[in-house]
Amino acid sequence: MNKRKILLSSLSLLAGLSATAATNELVVKANKPGAPVQPTMYGIFFEDINFGADGGLYAELVKNRSFEFPQTFMGWNTFGNVSVREDGPFDKNPHYVRLGNPGHAHKHTGIENEGFFGIGVEKDHEYRFTVWARTVDSEKSKIRVELTDPDTMGDKQAICKQDLEITGKEWKKYTVTLKPGKTEAKAHLRIFLCKPESTVDLEHVSLFPVDTWKGHENGMRKDLAQKLADLHPGVFRFPGGCIVEGTDLATRYQWKNTVGPVENRPLNENRWHYTFTNRFYPDYFQTYGLGFYEYFLLSEEIGSEPLPILNVGLACQYQNNDPKAHAWGDDLQQYIDDALDLVEFANGSTDTEWGKLRAEMGHPEPFNLKYIGIGNEQWGEEYPEHLKPFITAMRKAHPEIKIIGSSGPNSEGKDFDYLWPQMKELKADLVDEHFYRPESWFLSQGRRYDNYDRKGPKVFAGEYACHGKGKKYNHFNAALLEAAFMTGLERNADVVHMATYAPLFAHVEGWQWRPDMIWFDNLRSFPTCSYYVQQLYATNKGDNVLPLTMNGKTVAGDPDQNGLFASAVIDKTDNCYIVKVANVSEHPQDLNITFDGMPKKSEISGGKVITLHSDTETAENSLDNPAEIVPQESDIQVSGKNYSTMIGPKTFAVYKFNIAKQNR
Ligand code: AHR
Prior knowledge:
By secondary structure, the chain is an alpha/beta fold. The chain folds into 3 domains: about 20-35 and about 545-660, Sandwich (Immunoglobulin-like); about 40-55 and about 215-245 and about 280-540, Glycosidases (TIM Barrel); about 75-210, Galactose-binding domain-like (Jelly Rolls, Sandwich). Helix 4 (about 335-345) packs across helix 5, helix 4 (about 335-345) crosses helix 6 and helix 9 packs parallel to helix 10 (about 530-540). The model is unreliable at about 1-20 (pLDDT under 50). The site of alpha-L-arabinofuranose has 12 residues, from loops.
C-alpha cells in the first residue's frame, strides 16, 4: 500500500471512530454567480532580496563582472601584474583591469572569480563566456579561460578551458563557449594572460549558461523562471519592496539605470547587504542586469500583467525619516517624470524616446502596461502629499493606467487607519496592503475583507506570508493557514483584485529574510508548501465566486467553524465548480457539499480532488527532499447534486466537480 492509501484508510478509520462529530454542510448557490475573480488575482512579488536577482534568477555567474564594486576586486582574486584603470568603454561603469607582464616567463598574471557562493555548472552543459577586451602594446594577445574546481584533490583543477585570442587595440566583445567535464556547484572562473609580454585589458567579464529561460543571452536561470511560469501568476510585481525606496534617495531603484546595454547599467548598492547584521552580505549589489526590460519581458513570457512599483520621492522611512532625506517641491518632478516615462517605455510608440529604446532592446510591440504602484511602505502625511501630484499627472497623461497606493507597512493600526481614507480621497485604484504575520493572525483574518467598502479602491494584498513558529525554510502549517486565509480573498473577489505572496526567492547560503516561496542553491531549487498553495489557487481560480454557506452560516471564514475555511467558484471554461476547503483542525471532518440551483437537467458528474497535507506541522520541503509535501490528486466518483466526503486533519483540498447533462 502506498503512503497515500495508508493515510486515506487511516483517516477513514478515524472518521468512523468520531461518528458523533456532525457532518459539515456546505451549500453552494450554483445559480447565483457573484463577482468575477480577476485574472490578476493571484500573482508574484519579486525583489532582489536573498540574492533573488544577482546570484539567483538572473543567470549571470560572475560576481562584480564590471569591477565596479566599491572594493574593486571584491569577488576576485588576482595574481601577477594586475592593475585597475578607469577610462573604460562604458561611461557608467568606467573601471576595467589590465593584465600585464608578471616579470618572468614562468610567472602568471590573471584574475579568478568566486561567483555567488561559487559558480554552479553542470557536466556537458554549455556556458557562454564573454568579455570586452583589447590589446595594449601588441596587435595580438591571448587569454586562457578556465572553470576550476577549487576543492579538488585531483591532479588538475580545471574542469574545462579555452583559449581566446584578443586582436587589436580597439575594445571588442569576445565570446567563447565552455563545456565542463563534471558538475560542480562551487567552481571558480580563472583567466590567465597566456603570453606574458602582451598586455591585455579586460572589462565586463561575464559567464552565462547557454540554456537560459527561453534562450535569452542576458537571461534568467531556467529552473527558477520555469517555477514562476508554473505558478501561472496573474500579475508580476517588481522590483520590490524596500529596494524601490533606497536607504537614501540616491540609492533608490531608478528604472532608467536598468535599461539599455547591460555593460553600461550602473551598479547600485543593495540595502539587503546591510539591513540585517545577523545576515550581513557586504558583497551584495545590484548590477541591474535584470532590469525593467527583462522584467517586462518575463511578465509577458509567463503570462502575467506587469506591475512596476516606483519611488514616490520618499527614502525608506524605516531607515531614514529625516525630512531632508526626501524630495520636496520642484525636486519631485523628476520622480513624476520617471513614472510617466515608464509608461512610454512600456507602451509608447517606437518613435517616442523611450518606446524607441524598448524597440532597440528587441521589443517593438508595446508591453501593455496597465498598472503602476507609486510608493512602497510609506506612511504619515508626507505620503499622500507626495502621491497626489503623481496621480494628477498620471491621470492627465495616461488615464488608462490604474494607480496603486499604499496603506503602509502594517496590516492594521494607526498608519493603516490614516492611509486608507487618504487613498480613497486621492481615488487610488488599488491599495497595497502588507502583512507578514504569525499563525494566530492568519487564523483570525479569514473574514478580513467581508466588510470592506465596496465602493472604494480595490485591495492589492501586495506582500504577505504567514511567519510560522519554528520555520526554517517555510513550513506546512504556515502554508495551510495561508490557504485558509486565502478563502477570504477569494470570497471577496469583488474587492480583492490582486494578491502576491512575498518574498519570492531565497538562496540557501545568502538569505536575509524568511520564509520565502522558492529556495535554491547554485544548481538546485525547490518549491515550498506555500508555493503549492499559491499554485493551487492560481490554477483553480475559476471565473466567478459562488456564494457558499457552511452549517447555515453565510461565510466560512471563522476559526470557530470547526477549523474549516471554504470558498467556491465556477470555472466556465472547464465547466466545473471548484470548492476549496482548508481544515486547519487536528481532526478529520465529514463534509457534505451540495449544489443548489444548478441549471435544469444538469448535475455534477465526476471530478477530482487535489490535497496538500502533512502529518507534521513543521514539515518542510528542502533541497535534499524537495517533494516531502506535494499536492496529491485523485479522481472523485460522484453524480447528482451533492458529494459527501471526509477531509483529513490539517489538509487543504481543492475539489473540482464537472458539470454535466443529467443522464436520467
Ligand atoms: O519582502 C521583504 C520586505 O518586506 C520588502 O522589501 C518590504 O516592502 C517589506 O517590508
